[in-house]
């Protein structure tokens, strides 16, 4: 005999939008988030294992691209093709920290859509808490951020910069960068599931946005370009992360906190959006 | 006492779009509708159709609904609605308890990881906790018969092995509602048998919805039938009625076309024509067959084999002249060979016939018909299993002692 729980759970499906019952929506979101933890780990470990099992270089890939980017910009700067204003710290350290942090941001933006695309066959055939897809993305991103940090710390010593106690704040900066990226990614994911243009457009726009962020260039001293850099919400994130890595305090700490706050709000909105739109998306992708 | 009601479906409808670009545009509009909390409209937009229309049924613990219908009739869409993968456009679905769905076996398997690792991943996708999986690990491996290969990457498994593993994991959970979408059509015969057994065991304690094109499977396990036709759902509390509705739905389309018919003759046969005298024969009655031939030369010692084939392409009856013990000689010129098959002990339904005429003791063919024609059997007896032949079971006695 099967044990019968006293009150079996009842699931009801109706055409009404979940937005019409916000209380229930929040309750379901929280319970699904709790229920998806184990699955998220399981999926993340699956992907990480599979990724390394079929790779000789393994986690080296995490810094090959920032490294090549750094080398390219050092060469450009040294040859005088591109003249970068004084960055305050050795230029190689400036570019390397900048590209590492920038890469983290771009990966975080791409992550929700990539995760959802990867889980498409499962999403369209099995019912499981959809939060697990995103949560496993968070776990994967955190592990990759951890690896980045492990590379960054010895690298900045090698590049001639001595960090100070601010180093302890770096994980916080990375966390905010990830949160900011994922909040944008999460908001884009539903439309990105319908139209592939989003997935293609993100790297392209990111490439462009990089030049409006102090990643490889120093902040401009004045003029319209300075304004653009300042309006760019990614600027405080990169500057703060780099400052803490290279032993100084953040030049835009309040701005950084403000972006963190905005990201948190966007993240929650993105979560709601992702959740309520999933049935619509599954219907369009499997039919 | 009435067993608990586990599934309640009321007036459920779902529309789909025929065109991808339009579908994506509607998708975008539906996204905003969801966010703004707009109610779904019951109107069809251009290029849309009802994939599922106004479905109503209830299912209790211990009951099994056989869901049948032609491809594209809306069966899988209905299952996806029941499983909560997509939302209905109208109506209401109420499900109680843990829902197990075997719509796709092994969805989420990572080919690079080993079978054992995939058991954990797949199990947690299906809603089992790690502890639950560990406690059932041995059982899963044993049932899948993969203990030798369980630490090999899944990409080196054959498709049958993958499905076996998927089935073993999916049935390891104890669901209250079990949804099965044609998953029994896989694996070799002995494993399939094991699967039936397992499902039958699970079924006793839950409500099952089974999609299958195999009518004997439906009759064997279902307590009611839901027949789908172009999104419409018809409920039959009598399984046999449902199956006959499905058969008649299929019959129109299955009328024999010339393209399907194979007919060849070899010298000295000039022409040949086989005629089944009675196109419809009642159970236990006689089927009269004539073979009209025109030969260039006499053919002494021929052998004739007439086979009836059912809708599943199974040979169900064979009339063979070699069993008569008499030589069959065909004269030169025109002649008519007549024989009767009696009694015809076949299920209700449409049958096609094949004919093979050759020289006795040789494989040389003289006349060959494949799907040459059809005849109909009318029988009050209903199929009870896969067995195509239905012997007369009227003669038995029961004695005391």
Describe this structure in words.
The complex is a heterodimer of chains A (287) and B (401). Chain A is mainly α. Chain A has one domain. Chain A is built from 11 helices and 1 strand; from the N terminus they run βααααααααααα. Chain A has helices at residues 22-35, 37-53, 61-79, 91-118, 120-123, 131-158, 170-194, 197-210, 223-231, 234-245, 253-286, and one strand at residues 10-13. In chain A, helix 6 (131-158) packs across helix 7 (170-194) and helix 7 packs parallel to helix 11. The longest helix of chain A has 34 residues, at 253-286. Chain A is elongated. Mean pLDDT of chain A is 87; it is low at 1-7. Chain B is α/β, with parallel strands linked by helices and 401 residues long. Chain B has 2 domains: 5-251, Rossmann fold (3-Layer(aba) Sandwich), CATH 3.40.50.300; 262-378, Coagulation Factor XIII, Chain A, domain 1 (Distorted Sandwich). Chain B is 24% helix and 34% strand. Chain B contains 8 helices and 18 strands. In chain B, the strands form 4 sheets. Chain B has a 6-stranded mixed sheet, with helices on both faces. In chain B, helix 3 crosses helix 4, helix 3 crosses helix 5 and helix 4 (130-144) packs across helix 5. The radius of gyration of chain B is 27 Å and the shape is elongated. Chain B starts with a strand and ends in a 23-residue tail after the last strand. The chains are: A mainly alpha (287), B alpha/beta (401). At the A-B interface, strand 1, helix 2, helix 5, helix 7 and helix 11 of A face helix 1, strand 4 and helix 3 of B. Strand 1 of chain A pairs antiparallel with strand 4 (90-96) of chain B, so a sheet runs across the interface.
State the order of secondary-structure elements of chain A, H for helix, E for strand. Answer: EHHHHHHHHHHH
Shape descriptor of chain B reads elongated
Structural class of chain B: alpha/beta
Text of the CATH class of the largest domain in chain B: Alpha Beta
Low-confidence stretches of chain A: 1-7
State the low-pLDDT regions of chain B, or none: none
Query: What percentage of amino acids of chain A are in beta strands?
Result: under 5%
């Amino acid at each position: 005999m099967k044990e019968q729980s006293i009150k079996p759970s009842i699931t009801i499906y109706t055409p009404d939008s979940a937005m019409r019952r916000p209380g229930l929506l929040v309750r379901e979101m929280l319970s699904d988030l709790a229920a998806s933890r184990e699955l998220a780990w399981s999926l993340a470990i699956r992907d990480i294992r599979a990724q390394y099992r079929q790779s000789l270089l393994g986690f080296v890939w995490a810094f090959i691209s920032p490294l090549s980017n750094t080398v390219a910009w050092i060469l450009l700067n040294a040859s005088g093709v591109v003249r970068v204003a004084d960055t305050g710290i050795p230029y190689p350290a400036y570019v390397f920290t900048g590209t590492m942090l920038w890469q983290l941001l771009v990966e975080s933006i791409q992550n929700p859509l990539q995760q959802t695309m990867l889980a498409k066959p499962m999403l369209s055939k099995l019912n499981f808490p959809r939060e697990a897809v995103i949560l496993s993305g968070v776990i994967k991103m955190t592990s990759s951020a951890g690896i980045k940090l492990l590379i960054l710390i010895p690298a900045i010593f090698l590049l001639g910069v001595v960090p100070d106690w601010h180093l302890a704040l770096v994980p916080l900066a990375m966390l905010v960068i990830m949160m900011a990226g994922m909040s944008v990614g999460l908001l884009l994911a539903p439309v990105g599931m319908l139209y592939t243009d989003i997935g293609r457009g993100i790297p392209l726009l990111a490439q462009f946005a990089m030049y409006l962020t102090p990643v490889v260039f120093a902040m401009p001293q004045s003029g319209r370009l300075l304004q653009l850099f300042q309006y760019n919400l990614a600027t405080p994130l990169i500057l703060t992360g780099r400052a803490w890595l290279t032993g100084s305090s953040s030049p835009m700490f309040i701005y950084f906190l403000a972006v963190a706050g905005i990201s948190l709000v966007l993240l929650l909105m993105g979560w709601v959006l992702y959740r309520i739109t999933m049935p619509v998306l599954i219907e369009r992708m499997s039919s | 006492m009435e067993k608990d009601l586990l599934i309640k479906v009321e007036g459920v409808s779902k529309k789909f779009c025929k065109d991808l670009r339009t579908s994506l545009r509607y998708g975008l509009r539906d996204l905003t509708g969801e966010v703004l909390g707009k109610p779904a409209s019951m109107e069809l937009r251009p290029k849309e159709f009802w994939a599922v229309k106004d479905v109503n049924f209830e299912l209790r613990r211990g009951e099994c609904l056989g869901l049948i219908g032609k491809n594209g009739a809306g069966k899988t869409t209905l299952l996806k609605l029941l499983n909560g993968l997509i939302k209905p456009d109208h109506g209401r679905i109420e499900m109680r308890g843990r829902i197990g769905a075997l719509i796709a076996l092994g969805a989420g398997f990572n080919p690079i990881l080993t079978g054992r690792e995939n058991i954990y991943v797949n199990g947690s996708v299906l809603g089992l906790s790690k502890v639950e999986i560990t406690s059932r690990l041995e059982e899963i491996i044993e049932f899948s018969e993969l203990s030798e290969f369980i630490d090999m990457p899944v990409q080196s498994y054959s498709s049958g092995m993958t499905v076996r593993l998927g089935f073993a994991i999916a049935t390891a959970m104890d669901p209250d509602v079990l949804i099965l979408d044609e998953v029994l059509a896989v694996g070799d015969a002995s494993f399939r048998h094991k699967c039936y057994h397992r499902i039958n065991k699970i079924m006793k304690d839950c409500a099952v919805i089974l999609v299958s094109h195999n009518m004997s499977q439906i009759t064997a396990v279902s307590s009611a039938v839901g027949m789908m036709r172009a999104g419409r759902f018809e409920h039959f509390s009598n399984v046999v009625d449902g199956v006959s509705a499905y058969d008649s739905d299929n019959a129109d389309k299955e009328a024999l076309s010339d393209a399907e018919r194979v007919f060849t003759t070899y010298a000295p046969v000039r022409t040949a024509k086989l005629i089944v005298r009675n196109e419809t024969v009642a159970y236990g009655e006689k089927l009269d067959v004539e073979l009209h031939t025109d030969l260039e030369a006499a053919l002494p010692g021929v052998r004739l084999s007439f086979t009836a084939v059912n809708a599943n392409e199974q040979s169900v009856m064979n009339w063979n002249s070699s069993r008569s013990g008499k030589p069959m000689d065909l004269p030169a010129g025109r002649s008519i060979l007549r024989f009767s098959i009696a009694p015809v002990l076949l299920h209700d339904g449409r049958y096609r016939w094949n004919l093979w005429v050759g020289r006795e003791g040789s494989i040389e063919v003289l006349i060959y018909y494949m799907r040459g024609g059809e005849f109909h059997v009318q029988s009050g007896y209903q199929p009870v299993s896969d067995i195509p032949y239905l012997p007369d079971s009227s003669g038995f006695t029961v004695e005391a002692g």
